[in-house]
Amino acid sequence: MPARETILALPSPPDRIPPAVAIRSTTLISSLGTLRTLGLAEAYFAQLPAEHHAAIRDLIAGVWMPMDLGVAHYAAVERLQLPAQQARENGRKVAQSVQNSYFATLVRALGNGVTLWTVLPRLPSFLGRLVDGGACGVYKDGPKDARIEIHGVPIAHFAYVRLGWAGLFESSLELIARKVYVRDVSSPRTLPMAAFTIAWV
Description:
Blueprint: E1 5-8, E2 22-24, H1 25-37, H2 41-47, H3 53-57, E3 64-66, H4 67-79, H5 84-110, H6 116-119, H7 123-127, E4 131-132, E5 135-142, E6 145-151, H8 159-173, E7 180-184, E8 193-200
Antiparallel strand pairs: 1-5, 2-3, 2-4, 5-6, 6-8, 7-8
Helix pairs in contact: 1-5, 2-4, 5-8
């Protein structure tokens, strides 16, 4: 098996990457909208600590919110114990409402011959649309096999978030590849880190 090739190196060792300090309100709005569509808003607010209700109900698009609010939001969603496939599908829906128009613009800007290998090194720009802080690494394991790592993002602790990101990656990257398969391979001992393998045809 060929050695792993670094496509995008982390800017510093993982334990020296400062944690993300804020989360984009648009991400939370989209996430909450998905829960409302599923008829889970009441159950969600029953799980969310009361001190965060006003902040969540009064969200406006396009502003940064404290990461503590993002952690509280996704902790409440995690307690709903949604099926893994539903979490992944919710990530696809978030991609369609938050990321895919930006991704399509990026693809057009890259011009002819765009591949996942030309797009994956731009992962930091996608992360930057979701959270303020953290860092990414991209590694090549084969001609159509990659590993990506996201460090310093506290909400990566939640399985719901990681499954949602897997769905988000699949939805966005399938604008280029015919079919994309994303698997969460995160270590449960590294709480602010998420790792995924990506394969495509």
